[in-house]
Specification:
With 207 residues, the chain is an all-alpha fold. It has one domain (22-203). The protein has 10 helices and no strands.
Length: 207
């Protein structure tokens, strides 16, 4: 793989990670409601979840899941239920009005924010399949361990830029002010998107 091909691969990885989904919705909602530190911590939790699946895929767990479909199905339902819970929290916050505590964001301590963000990515079985696909595209079948580690490092660096950058971007004062003025609309939007993500996971055809 030459330099241009690698750049295109990393760009596609970054765009895929930054597209609207459970991870980016969680980070942006947390950053807007609770500020930069919480947003960055949420992003770091997502990155750690991605790193876990990257290592698991490199060790062959993806193949294990493909041959034991119940693992994939179990993770799928756990993830869908959690996203549904987040959707209900957002709708409840919108219903209660602007005087209510923001519910779209992850609440609790920073440790809790990290743990909940990590859980969102760990309960997304598609993540390990994504890592497996990118390894298959980028590396030859007999690639040495050093090449695998280098590819992992490059991909996780891109994930850091995307997810932690999302936490920084959405904690911007201008964005936060708009969020506070139109919080109910944001909460409804988060609820719809989290609910849609939950339904998509539930209706995805099993392996």
């Amino acid at each position: 793989m030459n330099g241009w091909e690698l750049a295109a691969l990393l760009l596609a990885w970054g765009l895929g990670g930054g597209s609207p989904g459970p991870a980016t919705l969680t980070i942006s909602g947390t950053a807007m409601a609770r500020g930069r530190i919480a947003g960055v911590v949420s992003g770091f939790g997502i990155v750690c979840g991605s790193a876990f699946w990257g290592v698991a895929s490199a060790l062959g767990m993806g193949a294990v899941m493909l041959t034991n479909s119940w693992l994939f199905i179990a993770l799928r339902y756990i993830g869908a239920l959690y996203l549904g819970y987040l959707a209900l929290k957002s709708f409840r916050s919108a219903w209660q009005g602007n005087t209510a505590k923001e519910q779209a964001a992850l609440n609790g301590s920073l440790k809790s924010v990290f743990a909940k963000s990590l859980a969102i990515h760990l309960t997304n079985p598609k993540a390990i399949l994504g890592w497996g696909a990118i390894y298959a595209i980028a590396l030859p079948q007999e690639a040495p361990t050093s090449a695998l580690l280098l590819m992992f490092a490059q991909l996780i660096c891109v994930s850091c830029v995307v997810f932690i950058g999302c936490g920084i971007l959405f904690s911007n004062r201008w964005i936060v002010e708009r969020y506070r003025r139109a919080r109910r609309g944001f909460e409804i939007g988060f609820g719809v998107l989290f609910g849609a993500a939950s339904l998509k996971i539930l209706t995805t055809k099993a392996i």
